[in-house]
Specification:
The protein has 8 helices and 6 strands, in the order H-H-H-H-E-E-E-E-H-E-H-E-H-H. It is an alpha/beta fold. Strands 1, 2, 3, 4, 5 and 6 form a 6-stranded mixed β-sheet that branches. The longest helix has 12 residues. The chain is globular, with a radius of gyration of 20 Å.
Length: about 220
């Protein structure tokens, strides 16, 4: 099989609705797609070919970013590699993932940082260790953005605000309860409420597109 075919099938899986790739490949691809892919290989062989197209998939993803509209939303979400109770026996990502803590609690895995525009289109992304502060990758992720960037309270930082503001990007966040009241433009308040759209994107990626798939070992 050509790598382009492997890439096409791998991408199609994430929009297929199947919970596991094995089920998708054996029950759907092998049964219904032989006309489109005459050189289909066995499931075991296909799994061996998938790592060869990883870099090509990453390059392709960078070509699918949306338009910079001047209104952007940022958020992060944990990507668990296994249930916490099985972390001590986990081997697949041993040495590559660490423990991290968020508002929900502790988790073992990595963290996905996303920036989208007001249409829900992807603008930037970054995968880091689970313990990395949400604010750390922001300067690098926003180097091509202008306008306003809306985030939750985890992105509050005067230093980060000033750094982005000098580049033409205004960081807007909700205030913490202990912070002094500050004047916020009405349009900013409205757009802060719309920030929930990026949480919906995270939920869709994890529960519909299966980007998070934990294993016991």
């Amino acid at each position: 099989m050509h790598l382009s075919e492997v890439m096409t099938i791998a991408i199609a899986f994430h929009g297929s609705g199947y919970k596991t790739f094995k089920e998708f490949y054996t029950l759907h691809v092998l049964q219904s797609w032989r006309g489109a892919f005459p050189n289909l290989v066995s499931y075991t062989r296909f799994v061996e070919l998938m790592p060869w197209c990883l870099m090509l998939l990453c390059c392709f993803l960078h070509t699918r970013t949306g338009e910079v509209t001047g209104i952007s939303f940022i958020d992060s979400t944990p990507i668990d590699v296994c249930h916490n109770c099985r972390a001590h026996a986990h081997k697949v990502f041993k040495g590559l993932v660490k423990w991290g803590k968020n508002s929900v609690g502790w988790h073992n895995g990595s963290k996905l940082h996303l920036i989208i525009n007001d249409c829900g289109e992807l603008l930037a992304f970054k995968l880091t260790q689970a313990f990395v502060d949400d604010r750390k990758p922001v300067p690098d992720m926003t180097k091509d953005l202008v306008g306003k960037l809306f985030g939750d309270r985890g992105y509050i930082s005067q230093k980060l605000f000033e750094e982005l503001y000098q580049r033409g990007l205004e960081l807007v966040t909700k205030s913490k309860k202990k912070m002094k009241n500050r004047l916020v433009k009405l349009i900013d308040k409205i757009l802060l409420r719309k920030r929930a759209v990026i949480e919906s994107v995270n939920d869709h990626l994890k529960n519909m597109c299966q980007i998070e798939h934990s294993r016991a070992s």
